[in-house]
Q: What sequence folds into this?
C-alpha cells in the first residue's frame, strides 16, 4: 500500500503536468481532424472597359467545398475570400472564365474538392445613345358628353441610352398608362416614361409633358 502511495505521490506535480499536456494534445488532435466545409465566395468584377456594360446575369457568388484540418478551414473562412474577374483587356463580346482551384490562395493544408459553377460567362456590349419618338399609352374612355380630340407631347422625342443590342430594337418609348376617364377639358400632365420592358436602358428626360385635348359633344 505504501509502495503504491509512493508511486502516486512521487513527483506528483510533474505527473499532473504530463497528464494536462496529454489532455491538451488530445483535444488539439481532435480539432485537427480532416473536415469538409462549403463556402460561398463573392464574385467581384474588376475593370469593366469604359463605354461598355455587362448585359448578362453574372453569378454573385460561387460555392467551393474545401477539405482539411478544422482550424485551417476556420481561418480561411474568416479571411473572407473572393473570386475576381478582371475585364481590363477585354472588349465587346462573350467571355467564359474557368474557375480553377489554383486561382484561390489556399494554405498548403487545404484542398478544394468541388467548385460550382466551374465557369462564369460574361457578355460585354457597347453603350450607345439614340433619339426615338415618344408615344402616349391611353386607357379608359372620355366621360359622357366629352370626346377625345388629340394629344401633344413636349418633347416629342427623347434620348435613350443602353446596350447597343437593346437600343437598336427600340423605335418608340411609351409613357405609363394614363386613364382619360375623368378628363372633360384640356389638361396638361407630367407623365413618366415606361422603360420596364427594356433592360439597362435609361431615357432623358425621364418624364414628358402630355397635353390632352378634349371637346364637348
A:
Amino acid at each position: 500500500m505504501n509502495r503504491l502511495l509512493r508511486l502516486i505521490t512521487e513527483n506528483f506535480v510533474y505527473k499532473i503536468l504530463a497528464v494536462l499536456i496529454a489532455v491538451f494534445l488530445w483535444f488539439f488532435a481532435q480539432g485537427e481532424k480532416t473536415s469538409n466545409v462549403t463556402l460561398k465566395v463573392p464574385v467581384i468584377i474588376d475593370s469593366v472597359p469604359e463605354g461598355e456594360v455587362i448585359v448578362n446575369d453574372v453569378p454573385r457568388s460561387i460555392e467551393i467545398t474545401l477539405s482539411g484540418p478544422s482550424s485551417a478551414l476556420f481561418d480561411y473562412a474568416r479571411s473572407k475570400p473572393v473570386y475576381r474577374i478582371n475585364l481590363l483587356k477585354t472588349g465587346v463580346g462573350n467571355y467564359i472564365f474557368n474557375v480553377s482551384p489554383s486561382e484561390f490562395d489556399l494554405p498548403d493544408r487545404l484542398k478544394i474538392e468541388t467548385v460550382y459553377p466551374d465557369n462564369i460567362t460574361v457578355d460585354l456590349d457597347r453603350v450607345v445613345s439614340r433619339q426615338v419618338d415618344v408615344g402616349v399609352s391611353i386607357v379608359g374612355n372620355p366621360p359622357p358628353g366629352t370626346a377625345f380630340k388629340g394629344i401633344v407631347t413636349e418633347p416629342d422625342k427623347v434620348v435613350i441610352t443602353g446596350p447597343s443590342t437593346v437600343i437598336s430594337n427600340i423605335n418608340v418609348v411609351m409613357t405609363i398608362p394614363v386613364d382619360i376617364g375623368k378628363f372633360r377639358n384640356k389638361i396638361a400632365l407630367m407623365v413618366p416614361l415606361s422603360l420596364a420592358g427594356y433592360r439597362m436602358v435609361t431615357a432623358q428626360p425621364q418624364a414628358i409633358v402630355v397635353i390632352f385635348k378634349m371637346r364637348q359633344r
Remarks:
- The chain has four helices and 15 strands.
- The first strand starts at residue 34 and ends at 46.
